[in-house]
Automatic annotation (TrEMBL):
Pfam families: Aldo_ket_red. One of its GO terms (cellular component) is cytoplasm. It comes from Lentzea flaviverrucosa. GO terms for molecular function: oxidoreductase activity. This is Predicted oxidoreductase.
């Protein structure tokens, strides 16, 4: 497994990371044993970066990871998002990143994860009621106490990145980045590179749009409400993926491997996060490590999937309005 460093001062991690959200029913039911086996397969293959959030399944995801790791905690870097508030039905209630919430959320995450520290700790979204300086300062205090190693950000814009980094070095920005979502290239990527901050890219397979198999949505799968999965948008995006699949086939890789490798090829400062609950899908993703492109292949991909090619926004309107990265 190849390695990459997160930012100028962050940890050295595997060249791809495992996103664990789907193991807690975000995309419909997930099999607990298969999820744990998938984490074990990732570790055995040298994947060291595991990404989670304390609100994924209202703590379920962290407890699942703790069960999977047990005596293998020292093999991984745990990236944890906090701040998302949910009720017992799973509905989102907003975000809370006050300093007191930082201390409280971290305490519960450490307990659920069965560890004494988190490798990268990050607010899941910008809290409109709390200056980012206050949130970052509170996480920095937890670094001084040994409970956090590095600070990350998630889905914030250029101005917020600069303000946060001025308080404490930021290791990485977690943001959606892939062949069907390239908004980060408009401004944010230039700022992170200027400041020496890496990108951990989620949504590299556009939440299942980029796949060789037909997409089916189970009950409880939130993608059913996402614009890119609805009506004409879905048909247009499927046609786009079909064209990408033709390029992949000529290269001897799957369309998913093409998409993962394309993100990884954007620079040494970009680490794709692959979200999956199944070992077969994980092994397919790991097969993308080391895939390279000729200039002609990159031009062919660009012709099919330029900036803004996807039909529909990546989230519903209410969620888009909460994204500082989209302002």
């Amino acid at each position: 497994m190849q390695k990459r460093q997160l930012g100028a001062t962050g940890p050295v991690v595997s060249a791809i990371g495992l996103g664990c959200m789907g193991m807690s029913n975000a995309y419909g039911p997930a099999d607990r044993d298969e999820s744990i086996a998938t984490i074990h397969t990732a570790l055995d293959a040298g994947v060291t970066l595991l990404d989670t959030g304390d609100f994924y399944g209202q703590g379920h995801n962290e407890m699942l990871i703790a069960e999977a790791l047990k005596s293998r905690r020292d093999e991984v870097q745990l990236s944890v998002k906090f701040g998302g508030m949910r009720d017992a039905d799973g509905a989102f209630l907003g975000f809370d990143t006050r300093p007191v919430a930082v201390a409280n959320s971290l305490a519960y995450s450490l307990q659920r994860l069965g560890t004494d520290h988190v490798d990268v700790y990050r607010p899941a979204r910008l809290d409109p009621n709390v200056p980012i300086e206050d949130t970052i300062g509170a996480i920095a205090e937890q670094i001084d106490k040994g409970r956090v190693r590095h600070i990350g950000l998630s889905e914030v814009g250029a101005d917020t990145i600069r303000r946060a980094h001025a308080v404490h070095p930021i290791a990485d920005l977690q943001i959606e980045y892939g062949l069907l979502e390239r908004g980060v290239e408009r401004e944010i990527l230039q700022v992170t590179r200027e400041l020496g901050i890496s990108i951990t890219a989620y949504g590299v397979l556009s939440r299942g749009l980029i796949s060789s198999t037909p997409l089916t949505l189970d009950a409880g799968d939130w993608r059913g409400h996402a614009p890119r999965f609805q009506g004409d948008n879905l048909a247009r995006n499927a046609a786009l993926v079909e064209k990408l699949g033709e390029i992949a086939a000529s290269k001897g890789v799957t369309v998913a491997q093409l998409a993962i490798a394309w993100v990884a090829a954007r620079g040494e400062d970009v680490v794709p996060l692959v979200g999956t609950t199944k070992r077969a899908r994980l092994n397919e993703a790991i097969g993308a490590v080391g895939v390279t492109f000729t200039e002609q292949e990159l031009q062919e991909i660009e012709a099919v999937a330029p900036l803004g090619a996807a039909a529909g926004t990546r989230y519903a309107a209410a969620q888009m309005a909460m994204l500082d990265s989209e302002r």
